[in-house]
Amino acid sequence: MIEVKDIKEVVPQTNLFSVLSNLGHEQVVFCQDKEAGLKAIIAIHNTTLGPALGGTRMWMYNNESDALNDVLRLSRGMTYKASISGLNLGGGKAVIIGDSKKDKTDKLFQRFGEFVNSLSGKYITAEDVGTSTNDMVNVSKSTKHVTGLPENQGGGGDPSPVTAYGVFMGMKAAAKEMYGSDSLSGRKVSIQGCGHVGQNLVRLVTEDGGNVFVTDIHQENLDKVKMYNPTIVDKDAVYDLDVDIYAPCALGATLNSVNIAKLKCSIVAGAANNQLEDEVIHGQLLMQKGILYAPDFLINAGGLINVYSEIQGYNRDKAMQATQHIFNVTLDIFKNSKANNIPTVDAAKHMAEKRISDAKASR
Ligand code: NAD
């Protein structure tokens, strides 16, 4: 038991409230249970449009500040994603600090579910990097505020095919804007990362007549797209490849000053979250280079649309139809970016922010 006199020695001297105020967060919950081995943070960014929905990431962070930074950044991104997708949802996210390969137990996720439940539906969780539908089943033993459940439990199962479909819609909208036709026939498209989303995107682009180039750090994932006969390239060769479209589907922050200087493509449209290392600098840099950037939080929203559909009684056809709408919204963003001579990421953020401020004003 820590005595009161000790508390000032253990609380780090940070300006946490100014950070939360700058980023606009409503609430941050630190959850710990020594017995269950649980250290988690739930961040609720904005609930103007509805309950904050966002997945739970399990990751071995280098330190607790990194975990806090990640959950604050990701939850803010969810606010934008939900708003621009027209969903009645706010933005939230959770992180569990731990190794998803070694530290998972049923008890850990059940205990985490109790913390989610204590928020009475203000935060709804789902799977994310390092967590699975099976983990969400354990969470669901303690709370009903969970999505991303398997299909046999009324859930939507793996959201990746829906995410890939939305990315494909965003890519086609970018092709229409840049080349005058939304067909990818004959277009050279590089896809970085052949994981859950990347594999589905390889299929969709190939079926549309595109010439696909793929890279991955794991041979077994490259093997899974073999039947589409893509050209395999080295992971470091992907940035200066002579292609029309680059689709980042692996890591965030690949759009940095070094890589943007190498890019020969005219469109960037992919699934990865937080592709721009710095939203202001790199959004501007892409625009200056004449590269059309389809904002990540807009075109990768298919997964969120899919889990949102679970709340209303899951129907995959409806989720796919709603995801198809990403095509039109992406075109609107390009129009607005052109009209105001601003980077597409800024146009997308303005649209998302406007929906939230309109909702606040109409209360
Ligand atoms: P995943 O983990 O299944 O796939 C990622 C793939 O990238 C893996 O095959 C991995 O080997 C590969 N990879 C990692 N580092 C690489 C590198 N340096 N070069 C090339 N390949 C590399 O993840 P996913 O579910 O397919 O998601 C892909 C991205 O899209 C992630 O950034 C994720 O956050 C984002 N996203 C996913 C969804 C979804 O529904 N799954 C929704 C929204 C956003």
- Please estimate the helix content: 40-55%
Strand-pairing-aware structural class: alpha/beta
Total number of helices: 15
CATH class of the largest domain: Alpha Beta
Structure write-up:
The protein has 363 residues and is of the alpha/beta class. The protein folds into two domains: 4-75 and 90-148, 3-Layer(aba) Sandwich (Rossmann fold); 160-355, Rossmann fold, CATH 3.40.50.720. The chain is built from 15 helices and twelve strands. Strands 1, 2, 3, 4, 5 and 6 form a six-stranded mixed sheet that branches. A six-stranded parallel sheet has the order 9-8-7-10-11-12, with helices on both faces. Helix 3 links the parallel strand 4 (56-59) and strand 5. It starts with a helix and ends with a helix. Mean pLDDT is 95; it is low at 1-7. The structure holds nicotinamide-adenine-dinucleotide (NAD).
What's the short version?
The chain is an alpha/beta fold. Helices cover about 45% and strands about 15% of the residues.
Write the layout of secondary structure elements.
Blueprint: H1 4-10, H2 16-23, E1 27-33, E2 38-46, E3 52-53, E4 56-59, H3 64-84, E5 90-97, H4 106-117, E6 123-124, H5 133-139, H6 160-179, E7 188-192, H7 196-207, E8 211-215, H8 219-223, E9 231-232, E10 245-248, H9 257-262, E11 267-268, H10 279-288, E12 292-293, H11 296-299, H12 302-311, H13 316-324, H14 326-340, H15 344-361
Parallel strand pairs: 3-5, 3-6, 4-5, 7-8, 7-10, 8-9, 10-11, 11-12
Antiparallel strand pairs: 1-2, 2-5
Bound molecules: nicotinamide-adenine-dinucleotide.
